[in-house]
Amino acid sequence: MTVTLKVDNREDLTQSNTRKIRHNGMIPAVVYGNDREPTTISVNSLELLKTVRDEGRNAIISLDVNGESVDVMLHDYQVEPIKGELLHADFFVVNMSQEMDVEVAVHLTGESVGVKDGGVLQQPLYHLAVRAKPANIPEEISIDVTDLAVGDSITIGDLKSGRDYEILEDDNTTVVTVLPPDGGAEQDEVEAPEEIADADSEASNEDENKE
Q1: In the chain, N or C: fewer CB atoms in 10 Å?
Q2: Where would I find the Large ribosomal subunit protein bL25 L25 domain in this sequence (predicted)?
């Protein structure tokens, strides 16, 4: 899905004009990539934030630049550290017929039977490297963990079938697993001193027999 954002051309690059742009609820931005000459623009900060929130970081955005519709993705942005306001954005021009590599967030759904039995859900990967044409890039990769029992795992190889994009991670890489309950580790810790005491007792008996 492509979202359209209206932008204004920005030819005056002075600091005073930049302050004026931000005062009016806009932020300075640059459009570049795919052999296109960089173009300076300004875009409404609230509309951009809403687009990213609703459609995801990898959303395809159509910008009206000098009367031309340009398909882009948000490549980078700067945020004011205290107020958290957007300061600047970089848009990368995409070729809708050409594959590109991006990172996509992993979202877990459901409650695993292993967790209900006392297991601990562990998620080593929160983002996956994906290769796809821009229109096929998913907003997120959802994984249902409902059937995961204690000791079960989901690997990259389990996710690769039936998708219109390619996951670039190794097939054997674990995305999510359910570890055994902590009780087993605590029991080992309790039994360990007794094992040490038994070993010391055996060693003492051997020394007495030698004498």
Answers
A1: C
A2: 5-91
